[in-house]
Amino acid sequence: MNKKYLTFGIVGLFAMAMITAGVVSYISNTSTIEMSVENPVQTWINGDEAQISLDLGTVLGGETINFIVNERNNANTNIDRYNLLLVVTSDNTFDGSEIVSVSNNGVPVPISALKYIRANGNYIDFTNIAGENTNVATIMMATDGINLAQFTQSSGSEKANDIAIELNAGLIPGNYVIDACVVYDLVGATCN
Predict the structure, then answer these.
(1) pTM of the entire structure?
(2) Residues 6+ apart with CB under 8 A from 165
(3) Quick one: DSSP state of residue 6?
(4) What is the pLDDT of residues 89-144, one digit of tens each?
(5) Taking the domains of the chain in order of start, what are their residue ranges?
(6) What is the 3-state secondary structure (H, E, C) of 143-184?
(7) How far is Cα 47 from Cα 69, in angstroms, rounded to an integer?
(8) Which of 29, 93, 188, 191 is a Cys-bridge partner for 179, taking CB atoms 3.0 to 4.6 Å apart?
(9) d(CA 68, CA 125)
């Protein structure tokens, strides 16, 4: 009789272990979701949605650079953001005298409205960039000519910025690249 109880006990213990293993594997079964998160506001240059950078090659003083930056809010919601950010990279260190005039959609933008954004989010007038000792100018146009402020871009809206930048005739020749993007925070603002 003891062997019978022992056999039932062992079989019962084995059955209990199997049930527990099944329940534990069922409970601990996890799902994995992979997704790609992209910038909700897409920007591109000169009508080519694949072009996010404009390599100007060698630029000479006195030239006017014309390009169009398109923006589209792809989100299903309104987005609070800053104005268009231009990141200009040069072979030379910027001194603030490189730009003579700027216009956006034919409207002149005062030079004092061009702001150089530091990595910490503080900004200064572009004309004061000489002390920064940099060959990468992170520039944004102040909407009111003085301060950088966020605004709301409606869901699905598109905007084209027809930008013309007139360069100083005394500009040191060199290679220049312009990247354009939208940022939501000025700290660490960059297009990379």
Answers:
(1) 0.75
(2) 64, 65, 99, 101, 102
(3) H
(4) 988 899 999 999 999 999 999 999 999 999 999 999 999 998 899 999 999 988 77
(5) 41-181
(6) CCCCCCCCEEECCCCEEEEEEEEEECCCCCCEEEEEEEECCC
(7) 8
(8) 191
(9) 23
